[in-house]
Amino acid sequence: VQLVESGGGLVQPGGSLRLSCAMSGFIFSDYALTWHRQTPGREREWVARISNNGGGNTNYADSVRGRFTISRDDAKNTLYLQMDSLKPEDTALYYCNTDPRPPGRSWGQGTQVTISS
Q1: Sign of the CA dihedral with 115 first, then 68, 42, and 8 last
Q2: Per-residue 3-state assignment (H helix, E strand, C coil) for the chain
Q3: Is the Cβ–Cβ distance between 29 and 74 less than 8 Å?
């Protein structure tokens, strides 16, 4: 299984970023998918979830609801996270994974998002 996150960067507060996660090694459309984030010294935090088979259902952490949008392209085996109205507290290393995450399933390298003026 490979999870490759990309799209992070440095943006000013109020800006936008679109993260991507290319996934391989499993039947992509069978799984619900999630985004998580982590800052130094803190546990990894769940951010958003999208259901399997086309993604008809989405869920968001309270801290990002209304600003972030999770989506998926089953033809490209790719997960996305559109992040708008970014805040300094969104600064973190962002990761993707499946839901459920099987025992032993590792995380990718993550993509760094930094919100600063």
Answers
A1: negative
A2: CEEEEECCEEECCCCCEEEEEEEECCCHHHCEEEEEEECCCCCCEEEEEECCCCCCCEEECCCCCCCEEEEEECCCCEEEEEECCCCHHHCEEEEEEEECCCCCCCCCCCEEEEECC
A3: yes
Given the structure tokens 């679109």, which residue do they identify? 18
Q: pLDDT tens across 9-25, in order? A: 999 999 999 999 999 99
At residue 83 the predicted structure's pLDDT band, cuts being 50, 70 and 90, is very high
62 burial (CB, 10 Å; 0-12 / 13-18 / 19+) is exposed
Six token digits for residue 65: 């609801």
What pLDDT score does 78 carry?
Answer: 97
Question: What would the two tokens of residue 39 be?
Answer: 């800052």
Q: What is the dihedral of CA 77, 52, 57, 22, to 10 degrees?
A: -20
Residue whose pair of structure tokens reads 């490979």 in the numeric block: 2
Torsion of CA 47, 9, 101, 27, to 10 degrees: 120
User: What local confidence, expressed as pLDDT, does residue 94 receive?
Assistant: 98
